């Protein structure tokens, strides 16, 4: 019996190696090589372009169709997409299981379906399950076409036959092409299926949504090339304990990134929340000492987080330092800096720190917010509710700049904050609407600012 030959494929860059190695020889990423069967069938396909080819022409000669963008009718989704759907656009939407990807897309098709032809392809659920969901979403009687199918060939045949204006593939990890030997969800399957579907979208003008699974770390599962192939990458985020869901554009060829759509999950599906700052603030008790709002950057995504501190006279000779969501050693270091350079001594105080909502913050931009929360609790003086604070604090008490300061400020402004205390080097070059900023160079200035404000 002949042995099946295998090779190793990098899940980051899709590069191939003959043997397993700890580091990918192509992109130098660690621990990304996965064993796959050698695929020979698709070699001819691999080098086909994603967009339809045509002879070269002057940029000025390219005809632009005016009317290619159309709204879905769900305002929050349109906002994230940069104003609506684009003909032939391919959108990848990722998120944790059960967060509402299928619900959102079915609702979107329901809203678009009254005007345009639509097709919902589910490779995860049966037509009956989709119908049950549609009933819950009050979409019974809607003209949306559904297809429960996992074979790429069949899906393409159906797409060709119906030529829908908008189609959803739920999900790209469960679709498979039978010309490949590897299992659905493997690097080569995901890459090939996504490439073929994208090719179809570009050539037919269908707007295509691909649902993508995410890994434990929250990144989209499958090869990194997937994110390069598609036009738009959206992430669905949210805490399972709250009903609020955020949809964020991570890459968008047709609009701005870091655009945020906010939804609430109700018993009749997702409802857009047009004023998200209000929902955020409802969970935040303004005017309480020991609470400080910061903007953290999770990967490339800014996120507003409340940091709480409780500073209380220690009853034992060994005061306790307890930190949830932030690094314990960093807390000890920052308390020393606060004593030496801020003139506030906590050596006889218990200090408890919590990043609200169960988030973990690993970046040094939290330093200044953390110390502000501690100062606020220690002095029993509340921090203004419209104030955000971020910045790195060095061992000599200097306030160092952090990455993407401008984006953090924009996010805070978007969520209704009006003041920011930040590193001097992060002061924005242009003013941000509705946001007044104070740049500081040393911890002493922060102590003063918090005392006087
Ligand atoms: P779903 O859309 O199936 O998630 P995904 O496709 O991302 O895995 O998630 C649905 C979840 O939302 C499920 O836990 C039930 C809940 N839900 C509601 O609360 N209200 C609704 O109207 C619907 C349809 C689902
Ligand atoms: Mg689903």
- Taking Cα atoms only, what radius of gyration do you get, to the nearest Å? 26 Å
Question: Which CATH class of the largest domain?
Answer: Alpha Beta
Order of strands across the widest beta sheet?
8-7-9-10-6-11-12-13-14
Number of domains: 3
Secondary structure: number of strands: 23
Which topology of the largest domain does CATH recognise?
Rossmann fold
Question: For this structure, what is the CATH homologous superfamily of the largest domain?
Answer: P-loop containing nucleotide triphosphate hydrolases
In this entry the ligands are: thymidine-5'-diphosphate, magnesium ion
Helix/strand-derived class? alpha/beta
Task: Give the number of helices.
Answer: 12
Taken as a percent bin, the fraction of beta residues is 25-35%
Head-to-tail CA distance between termini: 79 Å
In percent, how helical is the residue content? 25-40%
Give the low-confidence spans.
none
* Global mean pLDDT: 86
Short description:
The protein is α/β, with parallel strands linked by helices and 453 residues long.
Please tell me about this protein's structure.
The chain has 3 domains: 6-37; 69-274, Rossmann fold (3-Layer(aba) Sandwich); 279-452, Ribosomal Protein S5, domain 2 (2-Layer Sandwich). The relative contact order is 0.10. It is α/β, with parallel strands linked by helices and 453 residues long. Helices cover 27% and strands 26% of the residues. The chain has 12 helices and 23 strands. The strands form 6 sheets. The protein has a 9-stranded mixed sheet with strand order 8-7-9-10-6-11-12-13-14, sandwiched between helices. A 4-stranded mixed sheet has the order 15-16-18-17. Strand 17 (321-324), helix 9 (328-342) and strand 18 form a beta-alpha-beta unit. The structure holds thymidine-5'-diphosphate and magnesium ion (MG). Residues 95, 97-103, 133, 136-137, 265, 267-269 line the site of thymidine-5'-diphosphate. Thymidine-5'-diphosphate binds at residues 95, 97-103, 133, 136-137, 265, 267-269.
């Amino acid at each position: 019996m002949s042995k099946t030959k295998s090779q190793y494929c990098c899940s980051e860059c899709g590069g191939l190696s003959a043997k397993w190695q700890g580091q990918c020889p192509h992109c130098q990423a660690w621990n990304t090589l996965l064993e796959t069967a050698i695929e020979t069938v698709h070699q001819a396909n691999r080098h086909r372009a994603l967009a339809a080819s045509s002879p070269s022409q002057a940029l000025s000669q390219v005809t632009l169709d005016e009317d290619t963008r159309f709204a879905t009718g769900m305002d929050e989704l349109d906002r994230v997409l940069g104003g609506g759907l684009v003909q032939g656009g391919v959108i990848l939407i990722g998120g944790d299981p059960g967060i509402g990807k299928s619900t959102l897309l079915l609702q979107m098709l329901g809203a678009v379906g009254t005007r345009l032809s639509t097709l919902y392809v589910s490779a995860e659920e049966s037509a009956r399950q989709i119908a049950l969901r549609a009933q819950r979403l009050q979409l019974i009687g809607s003209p949306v076409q559904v297809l429960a199918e996992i074979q790429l060939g069949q899906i393409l045949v159906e797409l060709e036959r119906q030529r829908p204006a908008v189609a959803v593939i739920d999900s790209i990890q469960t679709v498979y092409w039978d010309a490949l030997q590897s299992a659905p969800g493997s690097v080569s399957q995901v890459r090939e299926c996504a490439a073929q579907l994208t090719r179809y979208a570009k050539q037919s003008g269908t707007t295509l949504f691909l649902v993508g699974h995410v890994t434990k770390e929250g990144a989209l599962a499958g090869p990194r090339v997937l994110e390069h192939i598609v036009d738009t990458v959206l992430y669905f985020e949210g805490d399972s304990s709250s009903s609020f869901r955020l949809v964020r554009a991570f890459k968008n060829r047709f609009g701005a990134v870091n655009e945020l759509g906010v939804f609430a999950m109700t018993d009749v599906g997702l409802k857009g929340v047009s004023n998200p700052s209000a929902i955020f603030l409802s969970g935040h008790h303004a005017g309480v000492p020991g609470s400080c709002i910061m903007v953290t950057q999770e990967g490339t995504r800014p996120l507003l987080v409340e940091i709480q501190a409780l500073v209380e006279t220690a009853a034992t000779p060994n005061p306790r330092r307890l930190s949830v969501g932030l690094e314990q050693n960093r807390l000890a270091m920052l308390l020393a800096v606060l004593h030496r350079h801020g003139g506030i001594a906590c050596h006889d105080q218990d200090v408890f720190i919590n990043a609200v909502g169960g988030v973990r913050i690993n970046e040094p931009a939290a330093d200044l917010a953390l110390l502000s929360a501690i100062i606020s609790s220690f002095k029993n003086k509340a921090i203004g509710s419209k104030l955000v604070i971020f910045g790195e604090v060095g061992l000599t008490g200097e306030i160092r700049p952090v990455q993407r300061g401008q984006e953090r400020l924009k996010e805070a402004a978007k969520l209704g904050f009006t003041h920011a205390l930040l590193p001097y080097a992060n002061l924005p070059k242009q003013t941000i609407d509705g946001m007044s900023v104070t740049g500081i160079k040393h911890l002493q200035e922060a102590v003063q600012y918090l005392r006087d404000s």
